[in-house]
Design a protein that fits this description.
The chain has 1 helix and 9 strands, in the order αβββββββββ. The chain is mainly beta. The longest helix has 17 residues. This is Outer membrane protein beta-barrel domain-containing protein.
């Protein structure tokens, strides 16, 4: 009976100690927030949506793949342009400074950004009021800082797209997994 009790105690100890680390685990973040452009003629603040799966390489370091869309208002250079949508796919890395349920982090990333714009014009042949088009795909970079508290993630990021445009994004989201 003593051996069985000792074996049970050791198994419980092993289970609880391995449950305290998140190394080798996956998680995903889903978030939304406010985007503020810092450059660009006539660009106005808007909303952003983020989805990002992560893989923990160690207790304090995670790699991710971020998909973000930022819908920004636009004061047209031409009379018919309504708004701009920036989409990005970026490889990210986050370093966590603390352990536990409340964790602060600092992250960087690089990826591809593209601009999609909507025009307000009447097309007589197709009977359409709106047309759209894509801009060039550009290499971009991002830096971010944030806080994870339980399953809530709050982050502030700065996205640099090429030489002529950048924007800040403040997001809050929900963490699935971990």
């Amino acid at each position: 009976m003593k051996v069985l009790f000792l074996l049970f105690t050791l198994l419980c100890f092993a289970f609880y100690t391995s449950a305290q680390t998140n190394e080798g685990t996956f998680k995903a973040d889903l978030g939304a927030g406010y985007a503020i452009p810092s450059q660009g003629f006539g660009v106005k603040p808007g909303v952003t949506f983020v989805a990002e799966p992560h893989y923990y390489l160690s207790q304090n370091f995670a790699l991710g793949l971020r998909f973000e869309g930022a819908l920004l208002g636009y004061e047209a250079q031409y009379n018919d342009e309504l708004f701009s949508f920036f989409g990005s796919s970026a490889i990210t890395s986050d370093y966590y400074f603390t352990k536990g349920r409340t964790r602060t982090f600092l992250g960087i990333g690089t990826g591809l950004f593209t601009r999609h714009y909507i025009f307000n014009e009447y097309d007589y042949e197709n009977d359409q009021f709106y047309t759209s088009g894509y801009g060039a795909i550009k290499l971009g970079f991002l830096g971010r800082i944030g806080l994870e508290a339980g399953h809530i993630r709050i982050a502030a990021s700065y996205n640099v797209i090429g030489a002529n445009f950048s924007y800040s994004a403040f997001t809050i989201g929900y963490i699935i997994g971990e």
